[in-house]
User: Which sequence fits this backbone?
């Protein structure tokens, strides 16, 4: 058996963009939109200079006198609002290992058989709990999480025909690095996610975080990637949805699937990626030469019947739940 040249999986955690709004903790019934504003500033030269300039006081003074003019986007709360509200939704789709595209019927049959064995022996309860923990601890707020006095995360879903709500107070006190900790209602949220994966219930989670960050304080939506070759008049463009500050669904998804602490010499969890890529660190924590990357583990499991350890099986399934194109190239 060979790897199919066409093999793709749809993501099973379907996450929306997150939209920002604001309120005042003294009157939380009144809400307003967080708008993206533009401002022009005169910055200073602070980048690393060539030795010929930095070692010559006259040249350095001349360089420093040049204005560093910038036009940037910014987002901040109003001066009478101290609470940031972030809303998004997550649909949990059934997972049985069936690819959305596969051009080899024998391979697909073996794949379905392998995943069925995993679901029977290991199950998705461990991954469901880790996804639930990343929702409850507000990891997905990224930089906004660091500057908050208090964070309350509320999760609402319709389960068995009734709307149910879970509340995680002081979400920032739930650590980001320990997946074995306990928190109120965490097991219930994990059970909801597990129900969605098993296809026993349509699960659509509506998630809201309320953060007290201070009156008029800056908040941090996603930053757009500028692809115009440097011709943009602005050096920073922030993401918005219908003129509301927002965060990319990809950024939210990256935080939710930060469940992999099974890579070699793990010190902290990373997102489930085929090579364990963390772009902010410029590092791939799962190297093919160490045979710990997704493709090596997956191919050994599928083609050679070399079953990975239970922890690595969880990792492989987390990548499949992430979705992507995993077919083998016809050319080397």
Assistant:
């Amino acid at each position: 058996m060979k790897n199919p040249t066409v093999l793709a999986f749809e993501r099973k955690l379907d996450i929306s963009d997150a939209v920002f709004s604001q309120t005042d903790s003294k009157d939380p019934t009144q809400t307003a939109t967080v708008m993206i504003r533009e401002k022009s500033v005169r910055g200073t030269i602070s980048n690393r200079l060539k030795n010929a300039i930095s070692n010559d006081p006259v040249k350095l003074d001349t360089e420093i006198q040049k204005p560093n003019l910038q036009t940037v986007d910014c987002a901040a709360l109003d001066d009478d609002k101290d609470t940031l509200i972030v809303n998004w939704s997550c649909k949990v789709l059934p997972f049985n290992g069936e690819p959305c595209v596969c051009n080899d019927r024998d391979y697909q049959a073996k794949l379905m058989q392998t995943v069925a064995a995993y679901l029977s022996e290991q199950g998705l309860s461990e991954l469901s709990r880790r996804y639930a923990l990343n929702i409850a601890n507000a990891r997905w707020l990224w930089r906004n999480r660091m500057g908050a006095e208090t964070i309350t995360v509320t999760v609402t879903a319709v389960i068995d025909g009734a709307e149910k709500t879970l509340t995680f107070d002081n979400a920032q006190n739930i650590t980001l690095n320990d997946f074995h900790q306990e928190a109120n209602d965490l097991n219930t949220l994990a059970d909801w996610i597990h129900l969605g994966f098993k296809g026993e219930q349509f699960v659509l989670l509506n998630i809201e975080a309320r953060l007290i960050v201070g009156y008029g304080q800056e908040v941090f939506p996603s930053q757009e990637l500028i692809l115009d070759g440097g011709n943009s008049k602005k050096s920073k463009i922030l993401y918005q949805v219908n003129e509301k500050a927002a965060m990319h669904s990809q950024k939210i998804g990256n935080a939710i699937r930060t469940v992999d602490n099974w890579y070699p010499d793990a010190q902290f969890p990373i997102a489930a990626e085929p090579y364990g890529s963390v772009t902010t660190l410029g590092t791939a924590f799962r190297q093919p030469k160490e045979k710990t990357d997704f493709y090596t583990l997956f191919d050994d499991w599928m083609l050679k019947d070399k079953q990975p350890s239970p922890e690595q099986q969880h990792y492989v399934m987390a990548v499949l739940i992430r979705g992507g194109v995993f077919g083998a190239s016809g050319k080397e």
Q: What stands out?
A: The chain has a mean pLDDT of 93. The two ends are 18 Å apart (CA to CA). The chain has nine helices and 18 strands. The CA atoms of residues 177 and 268 lie 6 Å apart.
